[in-house]
Write a structure and sequence with these properties.
The protein has one domain (about 1-90, about 120-130). The N and C termini lie close together (about 10 Å). The protein has five helices and no strands. About 60% of the residues lie in helices and about 0% in strands. By secondary structure, it is an all-alpha fold.
């Protein structure tokens, strides 16, 4: 999978690539697919526990996990939007806090905490060397 590629996009690209191959065993296709997604994800574990027997089965299960991924992404967006709008309303209705004196700021350390955004990205997105 490519960086920031959704499972749905990857499955579409993988399916198109499989159609271009003239002769390939089902086992080979499944192994290539499995090696292309991030280990440790629920979808990967599902494939490991019960390998698909047909391409239809593989794509049906991938679609199921794609819908789950879409739901997680939509819920994350709703939380972010709700957080922004509730933050804006509370700022309008309350007095802003007193700002620290410049000498106090230096003692606090960096003005912004380090940002970690990994929780905003779907579980399977991971960089793989090609």
């Amino acid at each position: 999978m490519q960086d920031n590629e959704s499972l749905r996009e990857f499955v579409k690209r993988f399916g198109q690539a499989v159609l271009q191959v003239e002769a390939c065993s089902m086992d080979a296709v499944l192994q290539i697919f499995k090696r292309s997604i991030c280990p440790g994800t629920p979808f990967f574990e599902s494939l490991a526990k019960k390998p698909p027997t047909t391409m239809d089965d593989l794509f049906r299960r991938a679609n199921k996990y794609s819908m789950l991924e879409d739901d997680v992404r939509a819920a994350t967006q709703q939380v972010l939007v709700a957080g922004r709008s509730s933050g804006n309303n509370s700022e309008r209705n309350t007095k802003p806090p007193d700002r620290p004196k410049p000498s106090d700021r230096r003692q606090e350390g960096p003005s912004r905490p380090e940002c970690h955004l990994s929780h905003l990205f779907p579980y399977h997105m991971r960089s793989f060397s090609r």
